Prior knowledge:
This protein is an alpha+beta fold. The protein has one domain (about 1-85): YaeB-like fold (2-Layer Sandwich), CATH 3.30.2310. It contains 2 helices and 5 strands. It has helices at about 5-25, 25-45; strands at about 1-5, 50, 55-60, 65-70, 75-85. Strand 3 (about 55-60) and strand 4 (about 65-70) form a beta hairpin. It is globular and about 40 Å long. About 25% of the residues are buried.
Amino acid sequence: MHVEFHPEAETEFIENALYYEYEVTGLGYRFIEEIERASKILIDQPRIGQPLDEQLRSFVLAEFPFSLIYSLDQDMIWIVAVAHQKRRPGYWRERINR
């Protein structure tokens, strides 16, 4: 099992890490570490996230107001969005038809 990011989710990941680093030195690095920690949890327990529908699940990050929106394939966790919990709910739904 491995993790892959939708290109737009990868952009969200990078942009948010840069934003946090700009705001507070070291915070962007902590954001990256949190995404890596969450990814490892998903690899070990892929069904841990809250089901959103038949295809998608949501895993809430512990230290930041973001969720990883993902789907499961046979040997891959496909992260569709690194979604802020208070902004634009559901904007990522159009990404599920990769």
